[in-house]
Design a protein that fits this description.
Elements (H helix, E strand, L loop, with lengths): L7 H49 L7 H11 L14 H20 L1 H7 L7
Helix pairs in contact: 1-3, 3-4
């Protein structure tokens, strides 16, 4: 039986390394998407409750400050916003909606650019 050509085992090892690196990148992207999904869910909850407060003509309770701080602390880099609890619920609602829009853009990545007609839009 013929022996494999020289260098074949190194080519296989290189291919295995590439597959492993791609799996690591895939896992990192998956973790990022999951984190963004959780942030969007929290934003959705805040939006719903802020809408209810605004419709009822009530202020945002001071007890929300810890909740807002935890929400902000969990956001990915590049989505910084200060959410003061003493703000009008409508103003705070606008800020949370803006944050959610940023989160969606991060989650959608290049597809958001395509929608907006950005230069690196996939074709």
């Amino acid at each position: 039986m013929d022996s494999p050509p020289a260098g074949l085992s190194s080519a296989i090892a290189e291919a295995i390394d590439e597959v492993c690196q791609e799996m690591e990148r895939y896992h990192a992207r998956w973790e990022r998407r999951q984190h963004l999904t959780r942030c969007v869910q929290v934003a959705d909850e805040l939006i719903q409750e802020l809408q209810e407060l605004a419709l009822a003509g009530r202020r945002v309770p001071r007890s929300w400050q810890g909740r807002l701080d935890r929400f902000l602390a969990d956001l990915p880099p590049g989505v910084p916003v200060d959410l003061p609890v003493d703000a009008d619920p409508v103003h705070l609602l606008d800020q949370v909606i803006e944050i959610e829009e940023r989160l969606f853009r991060l989650k959608l990545g290049e597809w958001a650019l395509a929608f907006e007609g950005g230069p690196s839009a996939p074709r």
